[in-house]
Specification:
mainly alpha, two-stranded antiparallel ribbon, 2 strands, about 65% helix
């Protein structure tokens, strides 16, 4: 997972180099940007076909695993208390997700985080406005991908060797972004390299997006509830992406003082505060559950009812609660 996010956020490297290459293609009315879209579209379709053919959608359909290995993969859920996947929509789990405060903390984090994502589509225009040529702008844009790759790889390394540090690592990743916003607001327009470094520094914000999204999934249980929480996280993500380009209004050119001010407050300081708040909220909840565990009031087993197909009698079976589709509020051992 960390490798996937690191490589995904490093896409400006490959797209920048590809953009630089297609700028040299001269095919008359068929513009270079059309070559870029054609090449990336073909590669995407090929990769999608490969995923559809060879990547299983669950351990049960993983053809490269033996029956024993498939069973072991399914039993791994016992260690994270997240329950088993259920294809049936459960209304009570949906309503629990809506009423859960942490659902909305994650939602607003995604929204605030993505209020700066309008920069992604504006990077080339902003860099070019510093006085660089089109070819120089294309190559300099690759550095944003390099910064994202290195920062995400470093974050993954630290997360693998520490415990309970997701909030602190996410909060720390906003510090370069805050510095970048301050530099963009204060540096003179003639200092184009300083302004360019500010643009590059913002790439560390890929860390909290990926970390907090996984965090939202890890601290939610019950298939319907977890799906709802992640869906709302992405609704926040989409809302931020819809609104963020509107910050780049023509009247704010060329310094975009208002834009950088909003990005500083809404897309840096606000989500930084939220990850710390989420950590505090979850820490207090864990303390409450630890106290219940100490008193012996938490049960880690459940009763599963099943109907005998022959005589239609109803039987009961005691099973591990971690193998039931329970929410994080029902399974207090989570």
């Amino acid at each position: 997972m960390p490798c996937m996010w690191a490589i995904g956020n490093a896409s400006p490297i490959t797209s920048g180099l590809l953009s630089y290459g297609v700028l040299w293609i001269k095919t008359g009315s068929f513009a270079p940007w059309k070559w870029f879209m054609l090449i990336t579209g073909i590669v995407t379709l090929i990769f999608a076909a490969a995923v559809f053919i060879w990547l299983p959608d669950s351990p049960l359909s993983a053809h490269f695993l033996s029956q024993e290995q498939r069973a072991q993969a399914i039993l791994r859920i016992k260690s994270n208390h997240s329950g088993i996947e259920q294809k049936r929509f459960k209304r009570y789990q949906f309503l629990e997700a809506i009423r859960d405060p942490k659902t909305w903390m994650f939602f607003f984090h995604a929204w605030g985080q993505e209020m700066s994502n309008g920069l992604t589509s504006q990077y080339s225009l902003i860099i070019q406005s510093f006085g660089f040529t089109t070819l120089q702008t294309t190559l300099l844009g690759c550095v944003t991908g390099l910064v994202a790759l290195v920062s995400l790889a470093l974050a993954a390394f630290v997360l693998a060797r520490t415990k309970n540090c997701r909030a602190w690592i996410s909060a720390a990743a906003y510090i370069p972004a805050i510095v970048a916003s301050v530099l963009s607001l204060s540096l003179p327009w003639g200092n184009r390299w300083g302004l360019l470094v500010a643009i590059w520094l913002r790439s560390t914000t890929g860390i909290p997006y990926s970390v907090v999204m996984v965090w939202a999934a890890n601290c939610s249980a019950g298939h319907t509830k977890k799906t709802t929480v992640i869906a709302l996280y992405h609704v926040g993500y989409g809302l931020g992406n819809i609104l963020s380009p509107q910050l780049f209004q023509p009247q704010y050119k060329p310094r975009y003082i208002v834009t950088w001010g909003v990005i500083l407050g809404v897309a840096c300081i606000f989500p930084m505060f939220l990850v710390i708040l989420i950590r505090y909220y979850l820490k207090q909840e864990n303390k409450r559950r630890d106290e219940l565990q100490r008193k012996g009031t938490i049960q880690e087993v459940g009763v599963l009812e099943h109907t005998n197909q022959d005589d239609e009698t109803v039987g009961e079976e005691v099973v591990d609660a971690r193998q039931l589709d329970l929410t994080d509020r029902e399974n207090l051992a989570l």
